[in-house]
Amino acid sequence: MPSPDRFALRLLAATAAGLVLIAAWHAAPLLRIELLASRAEPRTVTPRGDLAADEHATIALFEGARDSVVFIATVQRVVDPWTRNALQVPRGTGSGFVWDRLGHVVTNHHVVAGATGATVRLADGRAFAASLVGTSPAHDLAVLRIGVGADRPPPLPVGTSHDLRVGQKVFAIGNPFGLDWTLTTGIVSALNRELPTDAGGVVEELIQTDAAINPGNSGGPLLDSAGRLIGVNTAIFSPSGASAGIGFAVPVDTVNRVVPQLIATGRYVRPALGIRVEHQLNAALAQRFGVEGVFVIEVERGSPAARAGIRPARLGRDGAFEPGDVIVAVDGRPVPRVADLLNALDRAAPGREVMLTILREGRRLELTVVLEAGR
């Protein structure tokens, strides 16, 4: 049995150790919290309740349209300069959507331009080699065809774009960056925008939206809140190439006019007057002369415009510019810009008769012109 002195020393040591632990406990709140947390039970989950009505609508819209949206991967044939072997190398990717039950797929022209082959992957994972049916660079539209069996994805319901209003909700579906199908939302920010193309032309009547349109969204559908197709996502405006809140889509009224002709003939033939006009020059002339209309710069010999007696601009003896006829309306519809004239003609067809309202030396005249197929 330990002596009383040794017992007292042990008791004193135990008491000191206890005091040290108590001091450490109070001095280390993080350690105390961790010890308590290790014994804590999971917190009770708070029931969320039902989704909001607009959330239900957005989910239903995406799930109803997703199966009609496709992913497109293109390849390009290149020849090795050393071995002379022909290789198929990846060229780019984009999106598209099912147009009809015959396997036609609509996308952008720039998605397939320069490619020698394309593969279309459906939402269910099936992939098909696609053949090119036709393209229209002027509208940045292209049509592919895939051989789908009986289990075809449904085509998207087609809406209208002429009655769109700034502020309407829009929904863009695509496959940006090679990820799975994604949905972005926004509103119609502006209408009747135009953008230059790589070929030097201009795509007119574009829908501007703040829905995020990333590079892989090109060719995907832009839908309204009823799930109807109202446009084809075509471009973003961004110095960096990433979404910057300004995206553009080809309006569905244009799509519904161009795509059937691409399917039928492989190309889109734009009705023509046989005149030369200039976008930038026209804006300067309109401001200089205070006239809203399209200044005719040249008239092709033997063209519909020549047969109708339309007069081009000319240079006076002193070298000064003298305006000729200025087209101010087509079938009673004002055409203050070159884009408006092209769109008015686009709505017609080769062989159709249109009424041109022109200004000639301050007088307003009406001429009847039969359009021909453009070159």
What does this structure look like?
There is one protein chain. The protein is α+β, with helices and mostly antiparallel strands. The chain has 3 domains: 63-146, Thrombin, subunit H (Beta Barrel), CATH 2.40.10; 169-265, Trypsin-like serine proteases (Thrombin, subunit H, Beta Barrel); 271-373, PDZ domain (Pdz3 Domain), CATH 2.30.42. The protein is built from 8 helices and 23 strands.
CATH architecture of the largest domain: Roll
| CATH homologous superfamily title of the largest domain | PDZ domain
Helical content stands at 10-25%
Unreliable parts: none
Total DSSP E strands: 23
Give the C-level CATH assignment of the largest domain.
Answer: Mainly Beta
CATH fold descriptor of the largest domain: Pdz3 Domain
Number of helices: 8
Structural class: alpha+beta
Strand percent estimate: 25-35%
Strand order of the largest sheet: 1-2-3-6-5-4
How many discrete structural domains?
3
| Largest sheet, strands/sense/barrel | 6 strands, antiparallel, barrel
N-to-C terminal Cα separation, in Å? 118 Å
- Shape summary: elongated
Radius of gyration: 33 Å
Mean pLDDT value = 81
Defining key terms:
375 residues; alpha+beta; Thrombin, subunit H; Pdz3 Domain; six-stranded antiparallel barrel; 8 helices; 23 strands
Walk me through the topology:
Layout: H1 4-27, H2 29-38, H3 53-65, E1 69-79, E2 86-98, E3 104-107, H4 109-112, E4 117-121, E5 127-136, E6 141-146, E7 169-174, E8 182-196, E9 202-209, E10 221-223, E11 229-236, E12 247-251, H5 252-265, E13 271-272, E14 275-276, H6 279-289, E15 294-295, E16 298-299, H7 304-308, E17 314-315, E18 321-322, E19 326-330, E20 333-334, H8 338-346, E21 353-360, E22 363-370, E23 372-373
Antiparallel strand pairs: 1-2, 1-4, 2-3, 3-6, 4-5, 5-6, 7-8, 7-10, 8-9, 9-12, 10-11, 11-12, 13-23, 14-16, 15-19, 17-18, 19-20, 19-21, 21-22
